[in-house]
Amino acid sequence: MSEVSDQRKEGNSVGDVLPHVTAGVSSPPGALERPAGAPRPLQSDGLQPHSGASAVAADEASTSPSQGKPIVVLVGNPNVGKSLFFNAFTGQYVDVSNYPGTTIEIARGTAGDVTVVDTPGIYGVSAFTAEERVAREVIRRADVVLNVVDASNLERDLFLTQQLCDMGLPMVVALNLMDEADRRGVKVDAKALVEELGVEVISTVAVKRAGFGEVREALRRARPGRPNPDLEPRLARWETRVARRGDALLVLEGDQEVAAEYGLEPGGARDELYRARRVRVNRLAARVIRQGTGAGAFRSRLGGVLMRPLTGFPILLLVLACIYFFLGVLVAQTLVGFTEGTVMGGYVEPFLRRLVASVAGDSGTIFQLFAGSYGVITLTITYLLGLLLPLVLGFYFLMALLEDCGYLPRLAALTDRLMGSIGLNGLAVIPMILGLGCVTMAAMSTRMLGSERERKIATALMALTIPCSAQLGIIAAVLAGQGGAWVTAAYLAIMIVLLGGIGRLLDRFSPGRASDLLLDLPPLRLPRPGNVFNKTFRKTWSFLKEAAVYFLAGSAVLSILDVSGGLAAIQRALAPLVTGWLRLPPESAEAFMLGMVRREFAAVRLYDLALSGSSVLVAMVTVTLFVPCLASVLVILKERGRTFTALVWVGSVGLAFLVGGVVAQVARLAGW
After folding, report:
1. Strand residue runs (E) in 243-402
2. What per-residue string of b and e applies to 405-439 under the rule 16 or more CB within 10 Å gives b?
3. For residues 205 and 168, what is the distance between their CA atoms, to the nearest angstrom?
4. Mode of pairing for the β-strands spanning 170-176 and 223-224
5. 3-state class of 540 per DSSP?
6. Backbone angles phi, psi at 168, to 5 degrees
7. What whole-number percentage of the chain has pLDDT above 70?
8. What is the mean pLDDT of residues 171-191?
């Protein structure tokens, strides 16, 4: 039997069983024992409120300790309150970054002599989704696990708890949301739960920090839980060939990535083990849960109303209208108009230009590079603080509200079949509607989708076919004032056909298939202000830190092209295509160049040309399909990588001129 198994049988405390984990190094394939080294117990001052940031570097992926400190990993299903425990243990200042190679955010902080890591919400330690892969890598190397469960949904949450017990990880269970369970009439026998699991179980109400002191104390006594006894003989053959008992379980369940680390052939017992685990959890739940009568009946009925098509879609339209008004009008137009136009354009940019001029003069190449129309300093600061900051704040605030109140998963369930027709699931409705506000923040919101395939399809559809709110307002004015009813109807028909057609093509030719919509439906509740604001500001700060380098590089490239005459050369090269194929005035080439910086700039320039008839339709279709603005391109680059961004950029140029030219030639043949 492995070292982990022996220690679990002896019932030693966390100080006796914590292995030494070498930072960022996995054991070699074929290792016969766990890595050697001194144990790392949780000291008496650990897990007290702390305000210092973790020193763990982003590229260590939070699987490595900070300066040799033990790692406490928070694990639980979505919407169980893990972040509240994390904030209480680590204080306000934490390190939030993407796990290497993904867009999944991992938060790390320190509490005394302990590193605390918050993992994405998961339903099992597996590799079905990107979130689960990241969580699996962090959990495998944990010294202690704090498993946060929802007392009102215990039968669901205990499946993950039992898997953690089967992995032999020292752990404590936080029985959270006890107030919610009381309102719903759910009674949990915590003493019986301790007997069944073999670990300490602490009742908590995270929003009030009730029970947090007991959790901190219990973590110092953490011990492995009681595994399914039927596992022991089956794990024996694997435990001598891997570094950790948890790895042995994952290999037995058929985890190909973990098996490959050790050069082993993965087992095929996942379905069998999952069924056995579910049977064990059902029996356990039947013993510890008593369902009474609570006050949650109204919220339960309301949840059903939100998901029934007859009532859910009218409510959805109202919610989407509110989302569009908040993000597309108040934030993307009104607030950004003030921050970017008034603050940056009226005060910050003139100050920066004077500052550069005092060093390099107010003319010449140096001034143009750093403070000209596309200056590295002026454009970067304006876009980051004047444009991106209010957009990101607004987006994360709204997402935190929708997540906290429990509406987001119900919205996804309602629209799942509709979005499935273009290779997406119901969660994609949020990025698509946000794209009508701003493609920049919509590209960020694709993180909520379950697979990289779906994120790419949604991002491509938004970049290619959906106009942002600023551009949409100008397009509507052009169509109404210069086009007329038939041009407006033709424009809408073309864009709807393109959206559906491109979606079907991407679905057909993208490897894989749309992921099933597997959602937890948390109870509807009023959003908690502290939780909402904490998520908003933490994620905003993290995103801006990462995005700054992309905006700096993008503005540098654009500035160099401007100074070197590259932009003018591109405009001249486009002119014959614009006049011959699109049948538009030569000045339209300038509009498309302006659209590379901001989409609405192109629409405004075309509006100034006073087009008429079919030219209006051609111009509006082409400018809608043309490349996303610079801010959107840079965010897509950050989220999806260089290859995908280049394909989208080239594809949008080709699609815009292809469709616009076809419309122009059809109109010419028809005599319009």
Report:
1. 289-291
2. bbbbbbbbbbbbeebbebbbbbbbbbbbbbbbbbb
3. 27
4. antiparallel
5. helix
6. 75, 25
7. 79
8. 87
CA distances from 585 to 115, 406, 490, 581 (A): 63, 52, 21, 11
Identify the pLDDT of residue 149.
94
Q: Which residues face 52 on adjacent strands?
A: none
Residues 6+ apart with CB under 8 A from 356: 366, 367, 370, 371, 375, 377
Amino acid identity at 349: E
Alpha-carbon span 353 to 378, nearest angstrom: 8
Cβ-based neighbours of 398, under 8 Å, separated by 6 or more: 323, 326, 327
How many whole angstroms separate alpha carbon 374 and alpha carbon 566? 13
In this prediction, residues 253-272 reach a mean pLDDT of 88
Q: Average pLDDT for residues 290-311, to the nearest whole number?
A: 71
Q: Quick one: tokens of 263?
A: 């050069």
- With vertex at residue 64, the alpha carbon angle to CA 61 and CA 70, rounded to the nearest 5 degrees, is 135
Mean pLDDT of 533-539: 80
Q: What is the pLDDT of residue 448?
A: 72
Task: Write the CB contacts of 30 (distance below 8 Å, at least 6 apart in sequence).
Answer: 241, 262, 263
Residue-level pLDDT at 475: 74
Residue 197 above 90 pLDDT? Answer: yes
Provide the CB-side half-sphere exposure for 369 (13 A, CA): 10
**Phi then psi dihedrals of residue 92, to 5 deg:** -75, -35
Report domain extents, the chain. Answer: 3-227, 307-669
Q: Which CATH class is domain 3-227?
A: alpha beta
Please tell me the predicted confidence (pLDDT) of residue 5: 34
Q: Which amino acid is present at 53? A: A
Nearest to 11 by CA among 146, 199, 142: 199
Q: Does residue 28 carry a pLDDT above 60?
A: no
For the chain, how long is the longest CA-to-CA vector? Answer: 89
State the Rg of the chain over Cα: 28
pLDDT confidence band for 153 (50 / 70 / 90)? confident
Q: What is the pLDDT of residue 17?
A: 32
Q: Residue 146: phi, psi to the nearest 5?
A: -105, 105
Which residue carries 């749309």 as its tokens? Answer: 514
Strands 144-150 and 170-176: parallel
DSSP for residue 510: S
Query: What number is the average pLDDT over the span 371-384?
Result: 80
| Distance separating alpha carbons of residues 393 and 536, to the nearest angstrom | 6
> H helices of 328-388, where?
336, 349-360, 365-371, 376-381
Residues 23 and 141 sit within 8 Å (Cβ to Cβ): no
pLDDT at 295 over 70: no
Give CA separation, 330 vs 296, 318, 514, in Å: 35, 16, 34
Q: How far apart are CA 247 and CA 237, in angstroms?
A: 12
| Rounded distance between C-alpha atoms, residue 620 and residue 593, angstroms | 15
**pLDDT mean over 9-25:** 33
User: For a pLDDT cut of 90, what percent of the chain falls above it?
Assistant: 14
pLDDT at position 26 is 32
Decide if 53 contacts 67 (C-beta within 8 A). Answer: no
Place of tokens 């994620």: 539
Phi/psi class of residue 18: alpha, beta or left (left: φ > 0; alpha: ψ in -120 to 50)? beta
Burial of residue 35 (number of CB atoms within 10 Å: 0-12, 13-18, 19+): middle
